[in-house]
Specification:
homodimer, 7-stranded mixed β-sheet, 3-stranded antiparallel β-sheet, 13% strand
Chain lengths: 326, 326
């Protein structure tokens, strides 16, 4: 990481900008990516903040700004290592500014890259929603797990196009994103049936399909909110087709494959005041092997395991120097 | 039910005695059976309670007492229809007093039957603990689900006999019996690893065996706290042997097979203030098919599916008239 030259107050400011992304336990990866765009936009203005010390005289504003953006990219990836769009976004922004020499040029190229990334995300979401529409049988129950903005937009889009169906979802302890999902869907005119996670076996068998979001896609499988593996195993047992809905920006390279395992939250979020002798685990992510998925619904169609290899090859290439793992 | 002759105040008193059993969401079936013995002992003294109106003059105390006991048995079964020992206990008490003509004779026979039932439960638990001891590999992790006094006594017994192992358990939302389990085990000197229910897939694979309690055993499978089906499916997927621990008093006849499905709790216990348009389900029990179990550990040894038929045949016979379903 080439941010050794940043003052500690600028580093602290960047950490502060990334903090709300770390604490966002309720949003899916695509929604967090949209929030990260705002973080970059704020980071681009750090130098204008009079309360921060200016760069040392021998360093140009342009060099400093590049370091700020590299540090921002690293900070965002660090706080949510499982959420692949943050890595993709960082890479795109840093590649876009690489050859720029002026502060103004960097700001322009960075903003262009962010806008392009946002447009791509939105276009992908629209295509995925069109494909998912055909997977929702009229009058049926659809199971949806955790909170994925991609899944939500697919369901709301289908309802808006006049398809009638109901959604079954569970809580997704301990952060209860399932309640956020239920609230969002019901305010969009979709009837919801809700229960706790361990009651999955009592409701899933009545569903005609199950949808899950994606945090990142690795060669070993799809990473998503903990509980997704359980859902996938139950879907196979009950013969309910399971689709993971995701833009291809969520593929990550092999060297980041198990980064998501770092993301453990405090045990006290699960059991405040657990007795001595009880170790409380609060891991956030599950790995779902591709063989447990019926298909991966992307902007390029419904992909099966055999279709995925080119995406992994592509994602290995072209990682910006500042984001390579040491 | 032959309790038409009971005054409404006596009926109300019996309902009140059974109420704590209804609201006990944290105890397993064997533990609830022990509490139910106290309910019968209190019911035997209802006539001595001066605040209650006495029986009409043409009815003898003996007839009234038989009706009180029949009503108590029905009330206990009604509040916990999945918990088979309550049915077995009611049947044993009513059979024991059937031929008695005096109040004193009824009280004596009922107390003898209750004591015998309690002794049988305790002897069964001790035998089951001996068998389970050999299923706990030294130094390994054992998964235990929900709260079963049979499972707890097996684990504490093994620890007291000097076997060292750790236990992994999950919350068992929404009543969180898993926390009661963790607390009980850790105070008995067993280290516990605890997490939420949907994280089962992250911890179960490290366990050498899984133990579950039983509420009742039907021809269709074992009924236990919701989440048990998920556990059983995950155990098969991860090749972890799963044992259900239960005395044979938990076999029930075919006519009560699906009584447990009646036992739905208020949705507000899952999500207080859920938005309009969200139906919240709070079912309490899962049915685990025998094919998903490695074995049923009883006082008669570890039974496989093929061994079970005689138990179902026996349980069909000899149900007291007052407890037959209409």
């Amino acid at each position: 990481m080439q941010s050794g030259g940043l003052s500690s107050s600028i580093k602290a400011k960047i950490t502060e900008l990334a903090a709300p992304i770390k604490d966002d336990l309720l949003s899916g990866a695509a929604e967090i990516a949209l929030r990260a765009i705002t973080v970059y936009q704020t980071a681009l203005k750090i130098q204008e903040d009079a309360s921060l010390p200016l760069s040392a005289s021998e360093r140009t504003d342009a060099v400093l700004l590049k370091e700020i953006l590299a540090q921002t990219a690293s900070a965002l990836i660090d706080v949510q290592p499982a959420m692949a769009p943050l890595t993709a976004m960082g890479n795109i922004v840093l590649q876009a500014i690489d050859l720029e020499q002026s502060k103004e040029g960097i700001i322009e190229k960075a903003n262009q890259a962010l806008t392009r990334f946002e447009s791509t995300l939105c276009a992908s979401a629209a295509t995925i929603a069109d494909i998912a529409y055909d997977l929702i049988d009229p009058g049926e129950l659809i199971f949806a797990y955790s909170f994925s903005s991609t899944v939500v937009s697919c369901l709301l889009n289908a309802r808006a196009r006049g398809r009638y169906f109901r959604v079954v979802c569970t809580e997704a302890r301990p952060s209860m994103e399932g309640r956020k999902l239920a609230s969002r869907l019901t305010s969009g005119g979709i009837e919801v049936i809700h229960t706790f996670d361990s009651a999955l076996g009592l409701v899933l068998g009545n569903c005609s399909a199950a949808f899950m979001g994606v945090d990142c896609i690795t060669r070993a499988g799809v990473v998503n909110k903990v509980g997704s593996w359980m859902l996938a195993v139950a879907c196979r047992e009950l013969k309910v087709p399971l689709y993971a809905l995701s833009g291809t920006e969520k593929f990550i390279s092999d060297d980041r494959m198990f980064d998501f395992e770092k993301h453990e939250r405090p045990g006290s979020e699960v059991w405040e005041g657990a007795p001595k002798g009880v170790a409380v685990l609060n891991h956030q992510f599950d790995l779902v092997p591709f063989e447990l998925l019926t298909g991966l619904v992307t902007e390029n169609g419904i992909l099966k395991e055999k279709d995925l290899e080119p995406y992994f090859s592509d994602s290995n290439a072209g990682v910006h120097q500042a984001l390579k793992l040491s």
